[in-house]
Amino acid sequence: MKPEDIIIAPVVTEKSNDELQQGKYTFEVNKKATKVEIANAVEKLFEVKVLKVNTMNVNGKKKRVGYHQGKTSDWKKAIVTIDTNPGELTYLAKGGKATKISKKYKDSIDEFMGA
């Protein structure tokens, strides 16, 4: 699956807006997507480092128009936690020398609410 097929739309509610300060973004995703696929899609589309993905299936609501009764579609929601403070990584290279890597990640998703 392509990343564009996995992430369908952002979910904008009061609760999701409050969680933006903590680096948590809420998306409507494909029902068949796994947590790993969602994390890879967000990293590729928005160039951020994903720390954690929580997913949940949302059941559709019963709707009624006059005599006829129906149901809205079921969908899947993902809450993605990103790294808001990307820093340098240090590891030991050959010979025991400490080497630093600075990764180029963003600390927020600018396109989330059309900004």
- Total discrete domains: 1
CATH architecture group name: 2-Layer Sandwich
Task: Say which CATH homologous superfamily is assigned.
Answer: RRM (RNA recognition motif) domain
Largest sheet, order of strands side by side?
1-2-6-3
User: What fraction, in percent, of the residue positions are helical?
Assistant: 10-25%
Q: What is the β-strand count?
A: 8
Annotation field: number of helices: 3
| Unreliable residue stretches | none
Beta-strand percentage range: 35-45%
Structural class: alpha+beta
A few lines on this structure:
By secondary structure, this protein is α+β, with helices and mostly antiparallel strands.
Verbal overview:
The chain is α+β, with helices and mostly antiparallel strands. It has one domain (3-102): RRM (RNA recognition motif) domain (Alpha-Beta Plaits), CATH 3.30.70. It has helices at residues 3-6, 14-19, 35-46, and strands at 7-10, 24-29, 50-58, 62-65, 68-71, 75-82, 88-92, 98-102. The radius of gyration is 19 Å and the shape is elongated.
